[in-house]
Amino acid sequence: MADKTPRQPMPEQKPHERIKNFDEVPLGYSDDAALLEASRCLQCKKPTCVEGCPVKVNIPGFIKEIREGNHLRALQIIKETNSLPAVCGRVCPQEEQCEKLCILGKKWEPVAIGKLERFAADYERTREHLDVDPVKATQGKKVAIIGSGPAGLTAAGELARMGYTVPVFEAFHSPGGVLVYGIPEFRLPKAMVQYEIDALSKMGVEIVLNRVIGSAETVNDLLAKGFDAVFIGTGAGLPLFLEVPGENLQSVYSANEYLTRANLMKAYRFPEYDTPIVRGDTIAVVGGGNVAMDSARMALRLGAKHVYLIYRRSRAEMPARAEEIHHAEEEGILFNLLTNPVRFLGDDKGRLKAVECLRMELGEPDDSGRRRPVEIKGSEFTLDIDVAIIAVGNGPNPLIPRTTPGMALTKKGNIVADSETMKTSKRGVFAGGDIVSGAATVILAMGAGRKAAMSIDRYLQTGEW
């Protein structure tokens, strides 16, 4: 049956409707669609899909339960290794991980693993809640988690299950890290993130908000106060810029600031939240990743009439997920590919009025494996714009690396940590996620958090470093 049943599409809001609201774009599987999709799984004896999952979810196991109508049991299986299934079912690049290794995909379309994970999580949240029992802190040891993003939350959940006391220190007034400040409501509703965090809290994870480690108190202070180990998961929150003339003009934003204002500070819910954010008629977003797509699609929903996406390579080299590129195109984002901004132009009051660009062509591959963009001489042109959003990447949050003597760092300022144990050069201190790897995916950060938790447990049980 698996080879004859087509992959089930997920219904979505129509493009002309969704650009007027901030509701989620994909609407989720019905029970019947989930059953049909689950029936496509071959239940392989050697499931290669699991090898593609950074947190090693028992994929055939949970899909089998959906096929048999045991949706709560399906979620329980997922949660054995993944504390944030509703998040992963929405934002993980399954097409490059588990689904890429699906045996069915060698001849037909792979099983929609991510959509089924989302179905199980949404079923539990909306229809039949799982009881969350508190876990007793039996180990008599405390582990400080710095940062409540996907790496920190995953490490905290795993360690709490093992019986450790695990406070999570978050600098912002709301937990979730990049899940709440970076990813828009229409892609990942904040209520779903909070629901999954609440489940961790009920289990025994303490979330401590408005606590900036690296400022009034440092990692060394935490160790001196009696914490037996520390995990650093502070992410990549330092925006990178183009370093071209005019980048300091009014209405030139980093994507970090723009999305944080729109998401965490809820500018998208104006006038209920009167958060200042520049709204323009014609907006240019520079970049080709998921953050660029999020920024462009957010700008459209905040009232822009024209949104240009400027990217120096071709569509084939875009690092954004195919689904996000597709949604952006459907919504009317104007793609200016093989185009590179060289300067921003302002009026006599210092306000942005245009961007000057060059056309590019692709040359030989560079270190990333993608063909290097090369300028076409004499191809300069300008676009009249009133807002620019720079989405060309992020560097590591520098606060903790700067205030933790003796911790080895890379040239870019990332914390050096062993890829398997997540140990840093400082005894008792572990790190994972974007602060180590550079800006990557939610699920890779979660995988690092899970590895760190297991390594912390070994360290605290044996004392060996």
The CATH topology annotation of the largest domain reads as: FAD/NAD(P)-binding domain
Alpha plus pi helix count: 17
Please summarize the sheet with the most strands: 5 strands, parallel
Strand content: 15-25%
Q: State the fourth-level CATH superfamily of the largest domain.
A: FAD/NAD(P)-binding domain
Number of strands: 16
By helix and strand content, what is the structural category? alpha/beta
Overall shape: globular
Second rung of CATH, namely the architecture of the largest domain: 3-Layer(bba) Sandwich
- The rounded distance between the terminal residues' Cα atoms is 52 Å
Give an overview in words:
With 465 residues, the protein is of the alpha/beta class. It contains 17 helices and 16 strands. The protein has helices at residues 15-18, 31-38, 48-51, 59-67, 71-79, 85-91, 113-126, 150-161, 178-181, 190-203, 219-224, 255-262, 290-301, 322-330, 399-402, 434-437, 442-462; strands at residues 143-146, 167-169, 206-208, 229-232, 238-239, 252-254, 282-286, 306-310, 334-336, 339-346, 352-365, 371-375, 381-384, 387-390, 394-395, 429-431. The protein has a five-stranded parallel β-sheet with strand order 3-2-1-4-16. It starts with 14 loop residues before the first helix and ends with a helix.
